[in-house]
């Protein structure tokens, strides 16, 4: 490849640009699992499990040398606690942005019920099959739709990137959030692209009104400590 084309490619893919913003999208650590018939509201804001706390510490150590200028998280406990473990190495406070919360998959399920109790077993099974086939959140009744979810996540992350032009930023969030941002950014119809590991790192660079994924689902810090889970 000629030097001319190499430079052009570097500029197009944001590896040869000034004042780029690097955003580390971090999935939260493993959460405590709710019981089968627990209300969906309990599962939605579950806290970190013992392993999840260890994963949060591990990703904090992994990003200790990143020189982060800001750390954001969703308002859900598992993401906020993961964000605090990251921020502890950088002398910054975690900024909470509710738009970064996980998809409201059971948002309209009555608070005292499980999803299966609300829609019935047959409809729940049909929704599960449809989700496998379509790979979209729109398959699930009584939940936040794909377009709504993508709009809030994509808008929030771009707003953060523009606010911190030229900075290094970590966002402790959720697997659905990471997938929704990338799917919307790259114009993909499916909502599910990959399964981020608990406390896995996906690095995205922002500049010139475009976002390029530099790394996806980094897990070496988890494998080294025998903490890998999904």
- CATH homologous superfamily descriptor: Phosphoglycerate mutase-like
Shape: globular
- Specify Rg, calculated over alpha carbons: 18 Å
- Helix percent reads 25-40%
Q: H/E order of the elements?
A: HEHHEHEHHHEHEEH
* Highest-level CATH class: Alpha Beta
Low-confidence stretches: none
Protein name: Histidine phosphatase family protein
InterPro entries: His_Pase_superF_clade-1, His_PPase_superfam, PGM_Phosphatase
Describe the structure.
This protein is 40% helix and 16% strand. By secondary structure, it is of the alpha/beta class. It has a 6-stranded mixed β-sheet. A hairpin with a 2-residue loop joins β5 (201-207) and β6 (210-218). The chain is globular and about 60 Å long.
SSE inventory with pairings:
Blueprint: H1 3-12, E1 21-27, H2 40-44, H3 50-62, E2 70-73, H4 77-87, E3 94-96, H5 115-119, H6 121-134, H7 146-163, E4 168-173, H8 175-185, E5 201-207, E6 210-218, H9 220-223
Parallel strand pairs: 1-4, 2-3, 2-4
Antiparallel strand pairs: 1-5, 5-6
What are the main properties of this structure?
230 residues; alpha/beta; Rossmann fold; 6-stranded mixed beta sheet; 6 strands; globular; PGM_Phosphatase; Histidine phosphatase family protein; His_PPase_superfam; His_Pase_superF_clade-1
